[in-house]
Specification:
The complex is a heterodimer of chains A (about 80) and B (about 600). Chain A is mainly alpha-helical and about 80 residues long. In chain A, about 60% of the residues lie in helices and about 0% in strands. In chain A, α1 runs antiparallel to α2 and α1 packs across α4. Classes of the chains: A mainly alpha (about 80), B alpha/beta (about 600).
């Protein structure tokens, strides 16, 4: 099921990476999405931060490398 | 491209949604066509993050561009080697951003000797490097070059004592920027990009995001990327293209407060106290643009004789009639007048900027002369801010010719007859999506109706004024009086009650005793809608004739012939300055205008 938070993050990924809904499986990662390179990664994370009003830890910035992991980390940060 | 993208591509404040920049940038890349400006960015730190933002912000300024980013620190190798990727790219413009803290992190961060000469030395060697690059560029290519100046590096080694100690960082950086300016300005085609000013304006405290800096050598926090791109895009545009040449100004509630036709010359708000001081500040700002060579022009729906008199006698106006190179004062569409003025002054429409407080006029100009740059702003009082923030007068160098231009034009004013072009007025009016509510007045609307009758001077047929108590008496218990009003809204918002009338009855004749309408909504057929309603009221009353008068006053000449224009026939006048008109209701074909919806229903 797609909840509201996931929908918002999904839209950020679609806008920044130029992918479709179908590309964004939970496992979607730089390995499955060619436009998700290292420079885009930072832009992507900044755009998610802007959309969700959250801030990633430096390690998360580097290590969150799948769509599912990003959604889960944002969810955790918003729910304390 | 998607509609939302098109809207975002109008110039305005940086877009709030960061992801939107990525989407629009990708669309612009695929839609690329025609001549693109080729821009290269060379820097001592990572700048690639700016790419989508810079592409979109340049496009919002009307500059489609291709972008090239050198890797960080990759500068001389690209500039000096004629076979480098940069030379193959053949840029039109190169941005060089060298930061002392990237090149000399220790000298910048540490104290060194008491006079700070190590830090000063670091700055000097950056400037030497800039000089070398500029010379090499000048020798090999014709690239326009922008050189970023220096922001004060953070954190300052002396902390809050920095400004007190000898050889403070801020003082040395100010000196270095002075030298950098001199170096850049001695090279033709090179200009300073005021990076220091950008950091200051955005706030140096939050300029950097340590995570981005330490992880990726990205020197700017993500929240500032759009503003930084806009600042750089404006500088690039100003380096490559001339500034706008003509500023067209509205008068009422733009150049002065209030409505000249209603408030009178001494009633307009203009002076040293609020709210007149707001408009005085705007006039100063306009004069500064004139000093820089911008030609001023007037576009106002007003009576020209009254406007001339106001400019001649009002003691607080800083601008005078003769300060304007062209004037269009009258009642025609502003787009037509602006096109005629641009033609007379010999400039294209894209050299014209338009400032008007009225969103309806702005939309009319946007629609009919889309090349004209229309300044948009949020609310009253932000007019001078909007003018200051508008990019169209950005200029990186001034010439003596610029500064004299306004005088030249004033002396040799072109007197061509302003040609008028005809657009479909109905199309324009239909596009406003006007909707009117007409009704007989109840105690709820009474105060506003009394106010409208009391203060309207231009669209006022009889100039009769009645206190609210008199109206109240008629509303409550006079079978031979009808008070009516009309509200008007359009796609820009609700204008509220903008017209009012008093009808009286004598046998089978209904008489329009008062007919007033706010001049904000003139020339939009609103008066016809309201008159059509009065005809209905008269018929309901059992009358077979409607009569009206025009009583001449100092400011209501614009309605002198109005009754004739709407189909009334003249009657013999009984006294001087009064014209009487009548409309036999059995013959009248007066209809509610098709461009206005009635009570929410389209006719």
């Amino acid at each position: 099921m797609t909840d509201l938070l996931e929908r918002r993050i999904r839209d950020v990924f679609i806008n920044v990476l130029g992918v479709t809904d179908a590309d964004l499986t939970t496992d979607a990662s730089p390995e499955t999405i060619p436009s998700w390179d290292s420079l885009t990664h930072i832009s992507l994370m900044l755009a998610v931060e802007g959309e969700c009003g959250t801030q990633f830890e430096p390690e998360d910035l580097m290590e969150l490398r799948s769509f599912g992991a990003v959604v889960e980390r944002v969810r955790a940060s918003l729910h304390g | 491209m998607a509609d939302s993208s098109d809207l975002a591509l109008e110039y305005g404040p940086p877009l709030p949604d960061v992801a939107q920049y990525h989407r629009i940038s990708r669309a612009l890349k695929t839609d690329a066509e025609g001549r693109m400006l080729r821009v290269a960015v060379l820097s001592s730190c990572t700048m690639g993050f700016l790419e989508p933002f810079l592409r979109v912000e340049l496009r919002r300024l009307g500059v489609p561009a291709e972008l090239f980013f050198g890797g960080f620190g990759e500068i001389e190798s690209l500039v000096l080697d004629p076979a480098s990727a940069l030379h193959r790219y053949q840029p039109d413009l190169v941005v060089v951003a060298l930061r002392p803290e990237d090149m000399f992190p220790d000298l910048v961060a540490r104290i060194g000797s008491e006079d700070g000469h190590e830090f000063a030395g670091a700055l000097t060697s950056v400037i030497d490097r800039v000089r070398g690059l500029l010379q090499s560029i000048a020798a090999q290519a014709r690239w326009t070059t922008l050189v970023a100046n220096f922001a004060v590096p953070e954190p300052a080694a002396f902390g809050l004592g920095d400004a007190s100690v000898h050889g403070s960082r801020s003082a040395l950086v100010a000196q270095a920027n002075h030298q950098l300016h001199a170096t850049v300005c001695e090279t033709p085609g090179a200009f300073v990009w005021d990076y220091a000013g950008l950091v200051r304006a955005q706030g140096s405290d939050r300029w950097r995001d340590d995570r981005l800096w330490f992880l990726g050598r990205i020197p700017v926090a993500g929240t500032h990327h759009p503003a930084m791109a806009q600042h750089l895009a404006r500088t690039i545009r100003a380096a490559m293209y001339p500034m706008a040449k003509v500023l067209v100004l509205d008068l009422d509630n733009t150049l002065w407060g209030g409505v000249l036709g209603d408030d009178g010359i001494h009633g307009i708000k203009m002076g040293d106290d609020y709210p007149g001081n707001v408009f005085k500040a705007l006039q100063r700002q306009v004069l500064a643009l004139r000093d820089r060579g911008v030609l001023l022009a007037i576009s106002s729906k007003n009576d020209e004789a009254l406007v001339r008199e106001a400019f001649a006698v009002h003691p607080d106006l800083l601008l005078r009639w003769s300060d304007f190179a062209a004037h269009q004062v009258g009642w025609g569409p502003k787009s037509t007048g602006i096109a005629a003025m641009a033609h007379a002054l010999g400039f294209g429409l894209d050299a014209v900027v338009f400032l008007d407080d009225n969103p309806v006029e702005r939309a009319e100009v946007r629609q009919h002369v889309p090349a004209v740059k229309v300044i948009e702003f949020e609310a009253w009082g932000s007019l001078h801010r909007a003018l200051a923030a508008c990019p169209w007068f950005d200029q990186l160098a001034t010439s003596a010719e610029d500064r004299q231009r306004a005088t030249l034009y004033a002396n040799e004013r072109q007197r061509q007859t302003l040609a008028t072009t005809h657009q479909s007025v109905d199309d324009y009016l239909a596009s406003l999506e006007m909707t009117a509510v007409v009704a007989t007045t109840t105690p709820v609307e009474r105060a506003r109706v009394a106010q409208l009758i009391g203060k309207t001077n231009q669209f006022n047929l009889t100039l009769r004024r009645y206190p609210e108590a008199t109206l109240a008496g008629w509303i409550d218990d006079s079978p031979d009086h009808r008070i009516a009003h009309m509200r008007l809204a359009d796609r820009f918002g609700d204008h509220g009650i903008i017209a009012a009338a008093v009808l009286t009855r004598a046998a089978k004749r209904a008489v329009i005793d008062v007919f007033v309408m706010s001049c904000r909504v003139m020339n939009r057929q609103a008066e016809l809608a309201f008159l059509a309603f009065l005809v209905e009221l008269a018929r309901d009353w059992g009358c077979d004739e409607l009569t009206g008068e025009f009583v001449s006053g100092p400011r209501n000449q614009i309605v002198e012939d109005w009754y004739r224009s709407v189909g009334f026939a003249p009657l013999d006048a009984s006294e001087a300055g009064v014209a009487r008109w009548h409309l036999p209701l059995s013959e009248s074909t007066l209809a509610w205008p098709a461009v206005i919806a009635r009570n929410g229903q389209w006719s």
